[in-house]
């Protein structure tokens, strides 16, 4: 029987008590259902030569490793999050391409392949996730791995005009063709990938979504990722924590607008703050009767673009509160910290408006 092997940039350990991101939540749900191995970076820097850290809980085994400071900087901070992330979100103005970072990106993908290789069994199905690991199947193929390898991209795939602006675009496209199956969030993303591919080489398509490029046979599909409604309902059930219950009682005459997402320029946070300010300015009857709470924990804090947006939001929040705040009423609460997922579900339950305004 085939075993599922999930590979992602970072794993969520079994004892993780913090807020889990969308990728981790989706992957963990699949692994709980099928069982298998979850392999990836521990999230820590240290000696890369140390043995893999393995933990088994139920039907899931977690295997993780550390990255050196240099590999963390080149692979994660620079190429993944200062080149691929902004480009894939149509922000070429934020792309900072450096050849050493590209070399580090390739180096770490090769390192991951070396570390995973001894764990792979003959019938394993390997499922690779997201933009950090675009060359990963290519690295496994170089090492003689013939297992079925799938890939899912959790973010948009840009149009050829954007993607082809990246210096290593042709190499990345050819490496992606080493996957047996490429999954995308939307049909637009799938077509954007195929358009980029067609701009670089001849693509033969048969039976709709089966393709050949550079002599490699692969399939493309669309798999919109979702949530587990029953799990969300369970986490939101039960009494509110005492402090939250007290806050709800104090604000019983105030309508609550609530937003939570990772601090990122793709989320539309500065635009959202300005829209809220426009509401207070143009409809003064709402002052003192609504409150907007924005939770936006920092990630990728080493990347300059993320430092810039954090400073911008802190400045805007202070300005809006200084301009419109009253005794006993603060119009905007901006919290730059992580919250437990279960607590967030309860906060969602008592809020009147959930506000989501991505710009990419």
UniProtKB/TrEMBL annotation:
E.C. number: 2.4.1.15
UniProt KW Iron keyword: no
An annotated Gene Ontology molecular function: alpha,alpha-trehalose-phosphate synthase (UDP-forming) activity
SUPFAM superfamilies, per database record: UDP-Glycosyltransferase/glycogen phosphorylase
Record-linked Gene3D superfamilies: Glycogen Phosphorylase B
InterPro entries found in the cross-reference section: Glyco_trans_20
Pfam families in the record: Glyco_transf_20 (PF00982)
Entry keywords, A to Z: Glycosyltransferase, Transferase
GO terms, biological process: trehalose biosynthetic process
Enzyme class: transferase
Family that this chain belongs to: Belongs to the glycosyltransferase 20 family.
Protein's name in the database: Trehalose-6-phosphate synthase
Protein species of origin: Salmonella enterica I
Phylogenetic classification of the source organism: Bacteria, Pseudomonadati, Pseudomonadota, Gammaproteobacteria, Enterobacterales
């Amino acid at each position: 029987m085939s075993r599922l092997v999930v590979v992602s940039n970072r794993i969520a350990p079994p004892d993780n008590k913090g807020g889990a991101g969308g990728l981790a939540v989706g992957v963990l749900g699949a692994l709980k259902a099928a069982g298998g191995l979850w392999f990836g970076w521990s999230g820590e820097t240290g000696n890369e030569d140390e043995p893999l850290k393995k933990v088994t809980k139920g039907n899931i085994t977690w295997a993780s490793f550390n990255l050196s400071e240099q590999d963390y900087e080149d692979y994660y901070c620079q190429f993944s999050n200062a080149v691929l992330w902004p480009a894939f979100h149509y922000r070429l103005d934020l792309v900072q391409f450096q050849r050493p970072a590209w070399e580090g990106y390739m180096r770490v993908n090769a390192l991951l392949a070396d570390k995973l290789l001894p764990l792979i069994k003959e019938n394993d199905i390997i499922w690779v996730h997201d933009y950090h690991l675009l060359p990963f199947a290519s690295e496994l193929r170089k090492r003689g791995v013939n297992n079925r390898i799938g890939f899912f991209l959790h973010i948009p795939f840009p149009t050829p005009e954007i993607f082809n602006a990246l210096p290593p675009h042709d190499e990345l496209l050819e490496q992606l063709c080493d996957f047996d199956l490429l999954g995308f969030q939307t049909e637009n993303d799938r077509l954007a990938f195929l358009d980029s591919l067609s701009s670089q080489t001849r693509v033969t398509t048969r039976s709709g979504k089966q393709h050949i490029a550079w002599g490699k046979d692969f399939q493309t599909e669309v798999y919109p990722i979702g949530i587990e409604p029953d799990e969300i309902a369970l986490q939101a059930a039960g009494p509110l924590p005492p402090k939250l219950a007290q806050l709800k009682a104090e604000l019983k005459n105030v309508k609550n607008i609530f937003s939570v997402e990772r601090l990122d320029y793709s989320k539309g946070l500065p635009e959202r703050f300005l829209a809220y300010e426009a509401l207070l300015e143009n409809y003064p009857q709402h002052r003192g009767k609504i409150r907007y709470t924005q939770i936006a924990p920092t990630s990728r804090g080493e990347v300059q673009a993320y430092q810039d947006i954090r400073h911008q939001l802190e400045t805007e929040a202070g300005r809006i509160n200084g301009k419109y705040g009253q005794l006993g009423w603060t119009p905007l609460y901006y919290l730059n910290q992580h919250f437990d997922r279960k607590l967030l579900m309860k906060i969602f339950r008592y809020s009147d408006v959930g506000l989501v305004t991505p710009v990419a």
